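Below is a concrete protein record.
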Amino acid sequence: MPTPSLTAFGPLPPAPVTPKKPVSDTRHGLTRTDDYAWLRADNWQAVFHDTSLLDPEIRTMLEAENAYVDAAMADTAALREALFEEMKGRIKQDDSSIPVKDGPFAYGSLFVTGGEQPHYFREDREGGHRTVLLNGDAEAEGKDYFRLAGLSHSSDHRLGIWGYDDKGSEYFTLKVRDLATATDLDDHVENTGGGGVFAPDGKSYFYTLQDENHRPSKVFHHIIGQSQSADRLVYEEKDPGFFMGVGGSMLDDFIFIDIHDHETSEYRILSTQHLDAEPLLVAEREEGVEYSMTEGGGVFYILTNEGGAKDFKIVQAPVTAPGKENWREVVPHVPGRLILSHMAYARHLVWLERLEGLPRIVIRDRKTGEEHAIAFDEQAYSLGLSGAAEYDTDVIRFSYSSMTTPSQLYDYNMATRERTLLKTQEVPSGHNPEDYVTERVFAPAPDGELVPVSLLYRKGTPLDGSAPCLLYGYGAYGITIPAGFSTSCLSLVDRGFVYAIAHIRGGKDKGFAWYENGKMAHKANTFRDFIAAADHLVAKGYTAYDRIVAEGGSAGGMLMGAVANMAPEKFAGIIAAVPFVDVLNTMLDDTLPLTPPEWPEWGNPIESKEEYGWIAAYSPYDNVAAKPYPPILALAGLTDPRVTYWEPAKWVAKLRDHSTSGQPVLLKTNMAAGHGGKSGRFQRLEEVAFEYAYALKVAGKA
């Protein structure tokens, strides 16, 4: 019997043919020829600001690819509409957050029925009169793309800073708003990273500027009412390999400048009593040593892996002398217990940790040292620690969900240990957790490691190999994919799918070592783990190879490209969203936004022949060969600064040229968006509906 993928697509028009214009490159004595290098626009920086400047030949190619996708997916139009309406029906349209108390007010956000963008509001501290401070729908009117960067308020509650990106290129414009009148002042700052931090007096703020290569290389101090050209340069990071952000302490005593790559960090701090001073270096960057800071009155609490604390520890130092020589351990390093984040309040120290693959929140009384934990009993779940906006409080906020349980928001009294359920995510069209099963299974990898896999399926789904499966993976930067609640994936599960998340190496799902063993020279473990997850699900009867649809985005898109090369026969189809597939060429191009900061994650092929070899061995684009590739859908954004549009465009062209299966390879480029796709909440659902319709189609369920 033919596999579902072989019968999924009927007759199609001829696929676009991308012209070959070979360009050769020699590094470390090795020469590679790239037939499609011309798809990288020489003026890509300018295109991020104005897409009309894109080379017409490149635009014609991308538009031809979009037309081909439309033809290939034309028969799913009704299905896509049904999926969209289902997903939309599970979202409470007029939803509102539970406001967070801060001084005389409580701040929150809401959506209105039919609205795409959030509205930010405040009300009296204990409830009552509510004022809308920023109407995102009104600001987005008439724009093809619009993304808000939130609204932050000054300590005196008079002003707010808000930011927006209207191109998808992640260059944000900041504006200052009078919160009493909900109108903007004649003040704006352009090309920022997306947020500003007020000085305590509310008369100025700090921000990061994105340079011409889209890197946050400078921190400026902006006096409200003055021209951006008059802003004082506070700090400039000369090393293009480091990201930079700016933040503030809860007590308004310090401005934090956070400088980091993926394995090394450095902080510089500025006392808000001396805003014109030079920022003070806390601990000089040391390769492989990470630290992050929060203020706790007269001390800083510092989360760090210094001194071989691979899974991190917490130390403290006086605010007057925060250097490493004064660090004193307060929460020791425990191998296998990964501390993820921390917060300090007047009477308590709080941290989020991951133990045996599951998260929990730990609270310590700062006076007595007594500790207790917040944890749950399900096999797989997600915790989010949002804390509080005020320092002198005993009440923090956290969220909980599982793959079957909608998100629940709690206030938690750290002194009395009382939980107060504030809100349960409402699913207007209905949801009964008892109709579903969630499991965590462990797939044996080739080297003997056990890879956690979180599963969701509807009760009664046959586990005899006949069920289709969407297998999701990421596996990079130490990011853990939570086993949380998703209203969207229910549309697949209700149609008989098993929904699976493979917690592969490259994330921190099983501790920091899980991340280390999925990067640099060990990157291939990420790909082998994902294939092992597929093998295990087949062996245990959850699905079959000709029914597995693999999905991943960004670095997870690299995963998709790698497993397509390594095991094309094990997947009915592959969805690669904004896929980082041209890894070697990108890591060789130090002008691109993320290349220098990414070298500690992948390797530096410019300087090292060995690291060149690591990347060349798996880079999906470089390893495309004559193989029976399954149907593949690649998704791109024209103004994406993280994974540039030409990576999936080149990859698709090369796949078409080499695939021996005759299966369609599709490229869908959003010509008015970047890395995250469309920005509106329902616009995004349209994209998910498209992806899921594709999954249903190639799995034979459309």
Residues 1-6 have pLDDT under 50 and may be disordered. The CA atoms of residues 445 and 532 lie 5 Å apart.
